[in-house]
Amino acid sequence: MIAWRSQPTPEPLPAPIPSPAVPSSPSPTAKVTVHITGKVHKPGLYTLAMGARVADAVTAAGGPLRGTATSSINLARRLVDGEQIVIGAPSGPTQADPATTTLDLNSATPDQLEQLPGVGEVLAARIADFRTTHGGFTSIDQLREVSGIGAKKYEEIKGKVRI
């Protein structure tokens, strides 16, 4: 009788396949409120999802009236909470300039926070992280607790933000 006895050799497992990184995005419940006015079918206040574009706001207002040109407006721009968008204004853009709009610390995206003076990508991310870890801002003074915001930077941005 012949017996064949073999010992299996262990084979390494294949390397795990990394899952795609999920981009950080505002919470699905985050909203912006904008005022659409001018030559649209239904001017008024509209609340849209954070990250919505000017085109989304125009659509929510029923679209531009027939014959109204929208070429002077950047329809691809992301909305900023509290802004006014005028459709069909006779001369030049009259919509709120995102750089001068007061941002809500509890709903502004990191991209919007970068519009603040002296706030770059890293500091905007720190502000957003602070907001997440502390359950939101309850006062503008809490910006002083964010790493990288000293007295001078705080003075530059405190008038451009709100709660």
Which short descriptors sum up this protein?
163 residues; alpha/beta; 3-stranded mixed beta sheet
Terminal-residue CA separation: 87 Å
How many beta strands in the DSSP annotation?
5
What value does the Rg take, in angstroms? 25 Å
Helix content: 10-25%
Helix segment count? 4
Strand order of the largest sheet: 2-1-3
Oligomerization state: single chain
Shape: flat
**Could you list the spans in which at least 5 consecutive residues all have pLDDT below 50?**
91-95
Strand content: 5-15%
Can you summarize the main beta sheet? Answer: 3 strands, mixed
Average pLDDT works out at 82
H/E element sequence: EEHEEHHHE
- Helix/strand structural class: alpha/beta
Structural account:
The protein has helices spanning 54-60, 110-113, 121-133, 151-157, and strands at 31-38, 44-49, 84-87, 103-104, 161-162. With 163 residues, the protein is α/β, with parallel strands linked by helices. A three-stranded mixed sheet has the order 2-1-3, covered by helices on one side. It has a two-stranded parallel sheet with strand order 4-5. Strand 1 (31-38) and strand 2 form a beta hairpin. The longest helix has 13 residues, at 121-133. It is flat.
